[in-house]
Amino acid sequence: MKKLLTGSALALIASTGASFAQEDVSACLITKTETNPFFVKMREGAEAKAEELGIELNSYAGQIDGDHESQVAAIETCIANGASGILITASDTAAIVDPVQQARDAGLLVIALDTPLEPADAADATFATDNFLAGELIGQYAAASLDDAAADAKIAMLDLAISQPSVGVLRDQGFLSGFGIDTMDENMWGDEEDERIICNEVTAGNEEGGRTAMENCLAIDPEINVVYTINEPAAAGAYEALSAVGRENDVMILSVDGGCPGVQNVADGVIAATSQQYPLQMASLGIEAIAQYAEEGTLPENTEGKDFYDTGVALVASEPVEGVDSISVEEGLELCWG
Length: 338
Prior knowledge:
Helix content is 41%, strand content 17%. The protein is α/β, with parallel strands linked by helices. Strand 1, helix 2 and strand 2 form a beta-alpha-beta unit.
């Protein structure tokens, strides 16, 4: 089984644990929403580890993906309550920097989960999937699957938000790089000049947004045959839009997440391949880091060669292609969440 998630991430799990338990340690988890299965699993991981270590955990979430104001209010509450640390998946990775700095100035450890801040060192640490690699893997898979036909592909890019949070930029640019398209400025999406890119639409990372975005792209060019999606709920919405016009069987949809519904959609042929990430592990490791910081004052260390702690990614594909490492649907279902 070829995986990119093992190694240092699992070693850290084995080397940490109840020894960091300490009275009067509290943590905050701030996610983008409380309904997305990814963040539900993240909360489960934080809750389980906090209970194990005897840490008080308070969880907060925006009303929708992109609800920056609710996240700012949550940070202010965590500071006022004297929390030891904050785990946050930021909706607006640049605008959140000043509130995060206020928390750090107040002595809180701030760890970005899944979504690096802008700049990344605005947080004390980042525990995340290598989102560029996640996108790159599905881009490579799409190009390898199409082979010579990749040169004439018509690609829909279903992104996250107009604010272009870093997670969305990294996955988008990773996909295009993996497909062999010049990304121009890789710090933003939408500036590419390759004629194979038909559209960039935003989805808010949910099914309804994916459906609407796909409808908008099809209105531009009904012959689109490759669809990149920011996550699996958006992919499900795109599939609905394609089904409505009878295109569900001749369009390749690629995604990132690795939730159980998404992996099942790979098995069912809705999604061709998805890059699987591990939110429970992100949050669990984050809680351990807060406990260690409260006890010892030490900061988490980055994965060697990266400016964040890499919590792993693996490509899940029902039909592997030569030259692109992947795991089977069965393996993906064993590791999935949601």
